[in-house]
Amino acid sequence: MKYFIITGASKGLGEGIGLELAKNKNHLFVVSRTESEQVKKLALDNGCGYSYIPFDLAYSHNTPHLARIIFEQIPLENATGVYLVNNAGILEPVGRAESCNADAVEHHIHINLLAPMLLSSAFIQLTSAWPIQKRILNISSGAAVNPYWGWSSYCTGKAGLDMYTRCVALEQSTQPHPIEIMAVAPGIIDTSMQEFIRNTTDEQFLDRKKFVEFKESGMLVHPHDAGKRIAALLISDEFYNGAVVDLRKK
What we know:
By secondary structure, this protein is an alpha/beta fold. It has one domain: Rossmann fold (3-Layer(aba) Sandwich). Helix content is 41%, strand content 16%. The protein contains eight helices and seven strands; from the N terminus they run βαβαβαβαβαβαααβ. The protein has helices spanning 12-21, 37-45, 63-71, 102-127, 152-172, 192-198, 208-216, 223-234; strands at residues 2-7, 27-32, 49-54, 81-86, 133-139, 180-185, 244-246. A seven-stranded parallel β-sheet has the order 3-2-1-4-5-6-7, sandwiched between helices. The chain is globular.
């Protein structure tokens, strides 16, 4: 059986990934503050194992404990692969760097960068001796390489996650039972984050009108469609260790 851990699986892209993986007899561990009834129902209807773990990734110091809770429920003798998708993320705070509240910046980095780093670290520690397929997929963004006015926290966090991916891949390349790790920018997806962007002011985000045009012109990808591509990539032969990929260019 394949075991999948997905953070931020209650809505948007994370929910889309969960819905795709729930179609098969895998086992899903969904980690989020609220539960997706769609993912739960589909998993149970299809005989897919399902475990919901309510957790706020802003409290990243508890992340290693979260990993131990999950892996206590994964029997090595029954596992053919274990996979972690670090999907959870926020956009706020938005605005010029000097206008962003210190607590909001700290909160952002805890969720978008520190939590996936610590969860990945715990994942590696707990599975290092397991001779099965082990993969970590980090959800990146075009903002990791393209600076945006008003998105200093978001761009910085995603850039850091890309570099963390490359560093871990390099380290794992020398291990006897290596973990594969990859970062993927999924494109512009029709999520609540996009709605938040459209509802910011021009003073907060100079490119707001461009994102309004993305919505009005039908350029946004449905999260279920994006989730399907991510889920397929996760178990495919095109999962390349250390790669940072933009799905729009594939």
